[in-house]
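Lab channel / #folding
Pinned by the channel admin:
"Please post every new chain as: sequence first, then the structure tokens as a reply. Keep commentary short and put observations after the output so the thread stays searchable."

First post following the new format, from NK:
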Amino acid sequence: MKKRTKIVAYSLLLIGCCVAAAGVTTHLVNKKNSRNTPVYVTESNLPYSFASNASMIPAAKLQLVDLTEAAELAVHGVVHIKATVSGRTQVIQEMPDIFEYFFGFGDQSRQRRRQIESRPQVGYGSGVILSKDGYIVTNNHVIDRADEIEVSLNDSRIFPAVVVGTDPSTDLALIKIEGDDFPIIPMGNSDDLKLGEWVLAVGNPFNLTSSVTAGVVSAKARKIGIYEGSESIESFIQTDAAINMGNSGGALVNVKGELVGINAALESPTGTYAGYGFAIPTTIVKKVVADLKEYGSVQRAILGIRGGDVAVLRQLEENKDKDFGTIEGVYVSEVSDGGGALAAGLKEGDIITAINGKKVRTMAELQETIVQFSPGDKVEVTILRDKRSRKVSVELKNFKGNTEIVKATDIEVLGATFSTVPEQIRRQLNIGYGMQVSGLRDGLLKDAGIQRGFIILKINNRQIRSLDDIEQVFDEAVKSPDQVLFITGIYPSGRRANYAVGLDED
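Reply from TO:
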């Protein structure tokens, strides 16, 4: 769990299925010196102009923008989230005292051990109520590793929340509070956003609840390299509406008060707002939330390619012998084994220009488009090969190379949901297998002391590599005379732990 909004570090990511920038439309803003003078915005296809050129715009195109209604609608559907990570006890080993080493006091072969108790950590963020029965979307980094989650509504009511599911690849999480008739923010379509369009950022920066800032859409389908790992998905809405620490998980809404994005990151050399913020578009949010609610995990479709933006590759010295022309799209540098692209006949050197007739100009745009589909869906991919355009039908697959539903195991008696271990954590811990406890509520695992984030490596001395392994071992243990699960694993911090979970308890 991160206590503050993530800060951007730019990098180039090449991803197997993937994303985009939209055309530019300039909105000119005229504002007189009077505080009571309304702000007028206009839409123009002209490039950026100084305010002195505004007289060239027909008066009929001027529109009065009133953001008060949108703010009033949105502020009640945004919540304040308090996420608490309990203190941890860690055992560390120390080298023997130097005098003991030279003079032979004590057992030199044994290292000293001592326990270190870490203090509880508390982080704050925002969330958006999506349904009257209490489903809330937020950023994964807001609630990551949290043992307790507390949600405060705009009317000062406070509720405990449980994690329904998380998706580190998009930095989204779905949590739930108990109750009904909660205020919601209606879901809008981020695809309809235009550059220069007014938006509001609603959240709880610096623990200042129910804060609203206004700005315009500065860019779409922006990839900024903030998420690590080959499975990460980035296609942000960029806005100059002020986003600060604590805004993470809050709402980006349009002038109608509709949700068009989830605020996730800011670009700043200081850690505070310095010009631009970034929000996850609802084209991604809708699919992730629906899957987490139904399956407990995201049914992620992949195209099965690696590549890069033609516009970027065209500028590289090593590509000067390649004739890219003026085409915009995604250059295929590699076709993955077992993927849908390979089966459909895509190959290295192809340039993807559209999906189902929708233009894709960048890897980010491709990614945002593909993420809206599920494994088993068929898409029409327009490619340029040997300077000829052709259309290919591709059946999308999951990361396992098939079209089966990947459902997070949720065994009621255990009170937990499980997911695959993120690639970054696997590398850090140097583990080749395991399943992570992604959600935890009242149940046998929690009673045994297992905490959210724990990575199960073995159960009853059997390696755990998949959800099927967990279910199989669980079923065998239930039928055995002992009815116990001996669980061995490791936490993301590196602390190893063993637990015994009795299944015959009432």
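NK: The chain has three domains: 1-9+69-295, 305-395, 416-502.
TO: also worth noting, Residues 483 and 491 are 25 Å apart (CA to CA).
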